[in-house]
Amino acid sequence: MDxxxxxxxxxxxxxxxxxxxxxxxxxxxxxxxxxxxxxxQTGVQILFGFLxxxxxxxxxxxxxDTDRTIYVVTVLLGxxxxxxxxxxxxxxxxLTGRHLKPExxxxxxxxxLLGLVLLFCTMCSALLLIMRVALHNTLALWLVGGMALWxxxxxxxxxxxxMARSPNGRDRAxxxx
Length: 177
Known about the structure:
This protein is mainly alpha-helical. It has helices at about 10-15, 20-55, 65-95, 100-135, 140-165.
């Protein structure tokens, strides 16, 4: 009888490292994803709130056209980021009870990764605006470039490097555990 567990020889369990059904695995992965989303959503909400308030500051009217364009792009990126990182909650709520938990986790994970990429872009854009206003010179571009590189390495390169080095970093379907 197939209950979603490993074969008798234990090949799937040895590879996955856990004795859990497909549904148990989906539940665990959903819980882990929710914890990650809580961290990301808090940061996005704070950043987005500050971005929304900028336009109402007296100094906003003194910004150059370039800085206003950067601001508009940053707000749009912030909005897209919030949507992507809140999206998994809606996805889960609309599909709850339809026996689609494994698929829900996969799509919610993809939305979360998209949200992290958008958050990276939002942070870089916000930092560019702030550095341009604060420094009024090309040093702003170098500082933003350095921070963008550092963030990219921390968020994407280090995990990719760890996954490439680990023999257990991928499951049979090619998705991370």
